[in-house]
Design a protein that fits this description.
With 169 residues, the protein is of the alpha+beta class. Helices cover 48% and strands 22% of the residues.
């Protein structure tokens, strides 16, 4: 089961900086992400999504390949590639992987213009090491599916606060 974390930042650049830091942690096998997307509220009130994977481009590439392959059968590889690219791009545009796009836009609507929200879909996490690396990066936790203990630890790490050891209950 995956956990969702949404953190607001004062700019898209800061959200991207933190996303890159988290992606580096993934390369070190400290975190396993299902998705890491950024939603930015523009000055005009619209919301722009910045996702890791463009499903439209991936669909177009796949469609081009399969369209050309099928087109070869009918002696029309270029027409098949064109039709395949168009249908693949449409299929990719209509598909949604990771964090739901509608949910991201709804959350980003609550931001001030110019602010950005980082959405992390976390499959697995080495909590202590990840929080140590995220210490002091800033940001405001908007939503999580963590329990209260982990959520409080995340808030403290983002603020750069070292939490005192809690006595056992």
């Amino acid at each position: 089961m995956s956990d969702l974390v949404v953190i607001a930042f004062p700019s898209e650049a800061k959200a991207e900086e933190v996303r890159q830091k988290v992606l580096e942690l993934q390369k070190e096998y400290l975190i396993d992400l299902g998705d890491a997307a950024i939603a930015v509220k523009r000055a005009d009130g619209s919301v722009k999504l910045n996702q890791l994977v463009s499903t439209t481009a991936a669909g177009a590439a796949s469609g081009t390949f399969w369209g050309a392959l099928i087109g070869l059968i009918f002696m029309m590889p270029f027409a098949g590639a064109a039709i395949g690219a168009a249908s693949g791009a449409l299929g990719g545009y209509l598909s949604d992987i990771g964090v739901n796009d509608i949910f991201m836009k709804e959350v980003a609507d609550s931001l001030k213009p110019g602010d950005a929200a980082l959405f992390l879909l976390i499959r697995k996490l080495t909590t202590d090491k990840v929080l140590e690396d995220l210490k002091g990066v800033g940001g405001t936790v908007l939503r999580t599916s963590f329990d209260h203990t982990k959520e409080d630890a995340l808030r403290a790490a983002l603020a750069g606060v070292t939490q005192a050891a809690q006595p056992p209950a």
